[in-house]
Design brief:
Blueprint lengths: L1 H4 L2 H6 L4 H11 L5 E2 L18 E5 L25 H14 L10 H5 L2 E5 L4 E2 L11 H16 L4 E5 L1 H4 L9 E5 L16 H11 L10
Length: 217
């Protein structure tokens, strides 16, 4: 299921990771409370490799019931109130660009413009953060990030929030990086607020001849 859910270009690029992905799927499918739901786990890989212009890295899915939708930081349109990290992202978006965020946490418009919303761990257990940290996801997402580094190079901008995400710079040697503290309530006031990640990303895209992202959502 997981391998087949990916765009054919990702299937080709990650063919060598199929056994690992099948093993991960077998492990997490035994969790009756897996989040997001199994058909949504690979949503970050639905767009072609060559369409990815921005990589936005999260840690693992929201554990709140019904919150995880397979895209890092995103939630379904009907979710209210938003998770705290997402509230802080929207606050910074307004401060940075003055954008209308009337659709709250539905970030599909970002994805449709080439923003890959990728969690380091693609599943957890509903109600429990970091429940699947030993499932093998980091090996798989490391491979995916390496694919992007090779395929997109300077045409790609990586947004890395927090120390865990920033550690991925070792895999992104050819990529433009925008980094800061994480938007979580514990760290947002220690360098996320005022970091202007959205405008900086657009400037980096324009620098290499790419169209900016319309961050309104």
């Amino acid at each position: 299921m997981f391998f087949e859910q990916m765009h054919p270009s990702w299937q080709q690029a990650l063919a060598g990771q199929r056994d690992l992905l099948d093993q991960i799927e077998a492990n997490v499918s035994t969790d009756a409370a897996v989040a997001p739901a199994m058909p949504m786990v690979m949503r970050a890989f639905e767009q072609p490799v060559d369409s990815v212009r921005v990589l936005l890295v999260g840690q693992d899915p929201y554990p709140g019931l019904g919150h995880a939708v397979g895209l890092s930081f995103a939630v379904a349109p009907e979710v209210s109130p938003l998770p705290r990290s997402l509230q802080n992202m929207m606050r910074e978006l307004r401060d940075d660009l003055g954008k209308d965020v009337s659709n709250g946490g539905d970030l599909r418009r970002w994805s449709q413009q080439g923003v890959m919303l990728l969690n380091r761990h693609l599943t957890t257990s509903s109600g429990t953060s970091a429940a699947h940290f030993d499932a093998g996801w980091t090996r798989f997402t490391d491979a995916a990030i390496s694919v992007l580094n090779r395929a997109r190079g300077r045409k790609l901008v990586a947004i890395l929030w927090g120390n865990e995400a920033m550690a991925l710079q070792r895999l992104l040697a050819d990529v433009q990086v925008v980094s800061s503290a994480h938007p979580s309530p514990l760290s947002a006031r220690r360098g996320f607020f005022g970091s202007k990640p959205y405008s900086k990303t657009n400037e980096a895209l324009k620098f290499v001849g790419e169209q900016p992202i319309d961050w309104s959502c």
